[in-house]
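Q: C-alpha cells for this one, please.
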Amino acid sequence: MIADENLQDEITHIKMNNVYKHISSEEVLPEIYISDFITIIPIGKGGYGKVDLVKKKSTGEMFALKTVEIKFLVNLLYYI
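A: Here is the predicted structure, written as C-alpha cells:
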C-alpha cells in the first residue's frame, strides 16, 4: 500500500488524449488486440523496440503504439 494518498490517486489514472480518466478496481476494460489497429507510419526506433503511429479501426482515433522486443523483456524479468 502506498502511504501518500495523492500518489495512489495519481497511479489510478490513465492519460488518454490529454484527459485523465479514473479507473476503479471494479471497472472492466475492453480487450484490445493489435489487429484492432492500422499502422499509419513508423515514428521512431530505439534499442528496445519501436513506436508507430496507429489508427484504431473502429473509431478512427490515432495513437502512438510502442512495441518492445521480447528479448528485452526476457532479460528484464531475469534480473528482477
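A few notes: Residues 5-79 form a domain with the Phosphorylase Kinase; domain 1 fold (CATH 3.30.200.20). The chain has one domain: 5-79.
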